[in-house]
Amino acid sequence: MKNEIHTFLHCAKCLSEKPPNISARNWSLVEVGLTSKGIQIWCRRHEANIVHIDFNDGKKVYPK
């Protein structure tokens, strides 16, 4: 298996605070996991939701 991600998701607050000499990948502090509805990406630095995708109906996307 290989990484096929073509668009990365980051916390907007983290991006605005990121030092210029550090990449978004290295600055990122995220957790990704399964929820009762689907999958969630969580910012550990800001204790905030980045995105929550609901797989129960296959349509709803909950942006931050």
Could you tell me the number of beta strands? 4
User: Tell me, what's the shape?
Assistant: globular
What portion of residues is helical? 10-25%
- Written as H for each helix and E for each strand, in order along the chain, the element string is HHEEEE
Rounded to the nearest angstrom, the radius of gyration is 13 Å
Structural class: alpha+beta
Report the major sheet.
Answer: 4 strands, antiparallel
Report how far apart the termini are.
29 Å
**What count of structural domains?**
1
What is the average per-residue confidence, as pLDDT, rounded to a whole number? 89
Percentage of residues in strands: 25-35%
Task: Please report the number of helical segments.
Answer: 2
Sheet with the most strands: spatial strand order: 1-2-3-4
Residue stretches low in confidence (pLDDT < 50, at least 5 long) are: none
Throw out a few tags for this protein:
64 residues, alpha+beta, 16% helix, globular
